[in-house]
Recover the amino acids of this structure.
């Protein structure tokens, strides 16, 4: 008798739903001169792709939703069209 | 207030649409709950965004379960864990369709039995995963694929249905206020017995809003008073800070409606009904808060 697993079980693995950065049509570009490191962009990014310490945006996964740009109090994140 | 941990409990990245309010909320729920947690998720957006087999993005165990069974599953899980002497948090994360409509019987049963778990309903006000059919939680006037001219009846008052079960802890929240979500989940999990949190979670495709507006629209919901943030610990009812500020001088609900494509067929008459409903509800809430203060 074959030993089929009783349940399908997945394991945690980064990228397990694909590289979501490929969805992006607009890319967030931060003006580091104006940024005051308040962290609001990182707090509101639904996908948590903004590093809370360095504020680096992980473009492999950033979906380009634009929330960071919309919520930045200094208005220093521009959404720039991707050239695919 | 404790500091919110930096560590993320979700790996990059679940396949929610860009700008999903329900994912933003889940980030902070899991930060509050920590590693010793099991999620129970019935059919909804949050069951299909977890990753592709054999991979997942959630770093805590997730049990995916049939629609009507979430609260029953969580009951059994919690009973088994407690019987083994384990304190593991059992949290249901379910949509509004899965809660206000399909799962309400199992939910009511589990709340009545006094099971030790936290039920969180994220409310995008429609059946999102299957393409935005109306649910009991869809608000008056909203266009969905099954209400192409706007819903003709009111949103079901899920919170007052749940309130009738007299829970040790119940709250409302919104994905635009992550610290409030974090604090409420922390508090809920510190209390034994059944807990319920209802989170408004704006949904760009469903609400027909640009993806960058999710947080802004959620804040507008609170500022207009169409969504009120409050919590109830046993009999102590408190309006949460953002809503306390909003209730002093609510923004006209018309601004909230106009900002969303799903309300584009709302005429003046319906808009007036929606505003009157908001006013009436705000009065009720102010009264409940005042009465609760008096009995302190
Ligand atoms: C018994 C049953 N009926 C219908 C479905 C199809 N279905 C899957 S998800 C879903 C929508 C759920 O809506 P909601 O609970 O509001 O969560 P959302 O998708 O909006 O996140 C439906 C109808 C199902 N999986 N099982
Ligand atoms: S565009 Fe969206 S996904 Fe990308 S960093 Fe900004 S908030 Fe995050
Ligand atoms: S929100 Fe704006 S100012 Fe604040 S850290 Fe992000 S980019 Fe800088
Ligand atoms: S349909 Fe709405 S709730 Fe579902 S994943 Fe997309 S944005 Fe999130
Ligand atoms: Mg829904």
């Amino acid at each position: 008798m074959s030993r089929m697993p009783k349940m399908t079980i997945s394991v945690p693995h980064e990228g397990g739903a694909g590289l979501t950065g490929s969805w992006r049509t607009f890319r967030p570009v931060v003006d580091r001169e104006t940024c005051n490191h308040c962290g609001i962009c990182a707090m509101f990014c639904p996908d948590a792709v903004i590093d809370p310490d360095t504020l680096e945006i992980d473009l492999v996964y950033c979906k380009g939703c634009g929330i960071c740009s919309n919520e930045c109090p200094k208005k220093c994140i521009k959404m720039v069209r991707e050239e695919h | 207030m404790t500091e919110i941990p930096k560590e993320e409990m979700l790996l990059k990245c679940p396949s929610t649409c860009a700008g999903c309010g329900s994912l933003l909320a889940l980030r902070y729920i899991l930060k509050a709950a920590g590693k010793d947690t099991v999620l129970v998720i019935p059919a909804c957006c949050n069951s299909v965004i977890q990753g592709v087999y054999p991979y997942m993005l959630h770093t805590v165990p997730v049990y995916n379960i049939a629609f009507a069974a979430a609260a029953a599953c969580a009951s059994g899980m919690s009973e088994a864990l407690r019987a083994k002497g384990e304190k593991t948090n059992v949290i249901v994360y379910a949509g509004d369709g899965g809660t206000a409509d399909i799962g309400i019987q199992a939910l009511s049963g589990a709340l009545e039995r006094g099971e030790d778990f936290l039920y969180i309903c994220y409310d995008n006000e429609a059946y999102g995963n299957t393409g935005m059919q109306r649910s009991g939680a869809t608000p008056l006037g909203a266009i969905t694929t099954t209400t192409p001219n706007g819903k003709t009846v009111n949103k079901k008052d899920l919170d007052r249905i749940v309130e009738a079960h007299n829970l040790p802890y119940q709250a409302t929240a919104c994905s635009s206020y992550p610290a409030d979500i974090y604090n409420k989940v922390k508090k809920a999990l510190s209390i034994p017995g059944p807990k319920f949190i209802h989170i408004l979670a704006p949904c760009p495709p469903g609400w027909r809003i640009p993806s960058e507006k999710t947080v802004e629209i959620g804040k507008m919901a609170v500022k207009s008073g169409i969504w009120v943030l409050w919590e109830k610990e046993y009999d102590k009812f408190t309006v949460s800070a953002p809503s306390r500020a909003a209730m002093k001088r609510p923004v006209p609900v018309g601004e909230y409606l106009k900002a969303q494509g799903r309300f584009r067929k709302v005429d003046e008459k319906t808009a007036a009904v929606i505003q009157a409903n908001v006013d009436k509800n705000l009065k009720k809430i102010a009264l409940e808060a005042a009465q609760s203060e008096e009995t302190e």
